[in-house]
Amino acid sequence: MVRIWLNHWFSTAYHIILLLKKDDPDFQIIGSNENAKSPIMTVCDEWYQEPALKDEEYVDFCLQFCREHQISLFMPRRGALSVSKNARRFAEAGVKVMTEEYAVMRALNHKDQAYTLFQREQIGIVPEHYVVTTAEQFLESYHTLEARWKKVCFKFVRDEGGKSYRLIDNSRKGYSALFRKLTTRMPLDAVIDALSEREKFPPLMVMPYLSGDEVSVDCLKTDAGLIAVPRVKDTTRIEKIRYDPQILSFCKDLYTKIPLEQPCNIQFKYLDGVPYILEVNTRMSGGVQMACEASGINIPNIAANKLLGIQKPWEDRRIEKDVCHIEYPLVL
Questions:
Q1: What does the alpha-carbon distance between residue 321 and residue 294 come to, in Å, rounded to a whole number?
Q2: Is 331 domain-assigned?
Q3: CA distance 310 to 176
Q4: Residue 176 within a domain
Q5: What is the span of the domain harbouring residue 195?
Q6: Which of 208, 241, 273 is a domain's end point?
Q7: Who is most buried in 46, 87, 155, 262, counting CB within 10 A?
Q8: Cα separation of 188 and 186, whole Å?
Q9: What's the CATH code of the domain at 310?
């Protein structure tokens, strides 16, 4: 029996679990979270609450959990980088771990290092950017970029899900601002005030605002070739599966030059018709189910079987479609 553990994932992993079991209903899914309840619990065969631990202590907990619950395959989200660093310990315990090699994960999870890697290997088109740690450096970078690109945005180098992302919008004040959604927008003076509260802050990346379409490509390397399903996203719940040859070429080039073996998500954004590479998430995306539904390719299940030494067949006919999601209630 194959027992798969997903630790503290975001709630949309609900769909990942359904996809894992869709083609292998005998898979036993074990879920856990720091919170006692999560939507994921409704589709797990077993559910546990995790302790609040960090780094090596958390890795020790994970290893012990795998042993106690006879885990065959571990799909970490929380602490994935630390788990990757200790991959040998899990292998010695007979546990397959869905993470990339530590050096690769560390570079790709650090946006500054990732951009340096992309530029060195000539992968895709990297946007102009500056990494700053003081308000003075930020202001200098802002003025340089604003003169060339007009609109400027920023986020911390170590970030997940774009929580720290902000677009500098100096029209945010006044009556007209009442009619616009401004959640991720800040005027320059407010940004400088906030950053000036720290003499030095964690590395922050400043770059041009890319106003075109955002493209999220769900990928997996297999013996039969590279799965790459691009989803064009906008402000609605409708996403478009569009196979831009240039983006597909960038993805193929990345996989040729960087040793990625597990599912990942590559983010691009357009400006004036040019697709710029933004980041590579070394895990399945929160919307991977959209790519799977539209393409008919069960990425989570194929990835799990690949780790188990089984090559599942797949075919991508590259039919362009629109796909959407809706919310529905769950009783926990």
A1: 7
A2: no
A3: 58
A4: yes
A5: 130-208
A6: 208
A7: 262
A8: 6
A9: 3.30.470.20
Say if residues 300 and 219 touch (Cβ distance below 8 Å).
no
End-to-end CA distance of the chain: 27
At residue 236, does pLDDT exceed 70? yes
120 and 71 fall within a common domain = no
- Helix ranges (DSSP H) in the chain: 13-22, 55-68, 80-85, 87-92, 102-108, 111-121, 135-149, 188-195, 245-257, 288-295, 299-307
Class of residue 319 by CB neighbours under 10 A (exposed 0-12, middle 13-18, buried 19+)? exposed
Q: Which residues share a beta bridge with 271?
A: 274
Could you give the C-alpha distances from 86 to 12, 20, 55, 302, 303, in angstroms and in order? 27, 25, 11, 24, 21
pLDDT digits (tens, 9 = 90+) for 120-166: 999 999 999 999 999 999 999 999 999 999 999 999 988 766 788 99
Residues with Cβ within 8 Å of residue 126, at least 6 apart in sequence = 115, 118, 119, 276, 277
3-state secondary structure of 116: helix
Instruction: Tell me, rounded to whole angstroms, the distance of Cα 9 from its chain centroid.
Output: 12
Structural domain includes residue 200: yes
CB 31 within 8 A of CB 47: yes
Q: Compute the distance between CA of residue 322 and CA of residue 317 in angstroms, rounded to an integer.
A: 15
Q: Which pairing describes strands 264-271 and 214-222: parallel, antiparallel, or unpaired?
A: antiparallel
Supply 99's token pair: 């993470």
Measure the CA–CA gap between 234 and 214, rounded to whole angstroms. 7
**Residue with the two structure tokens 């774009």:** 162
**Cα–Cα dist 258/88, whole Å:** 21
- Count up the domains in the chain and report the number: 3
pLDDT digits (tens, 9 = 90+) for 197-219: 999 999 999 999 999 999 999 99
Q: Do the strands 130-132 and 204-208 form a parallel or antiparallel pair, or are they unpaired?
A: antiparallel
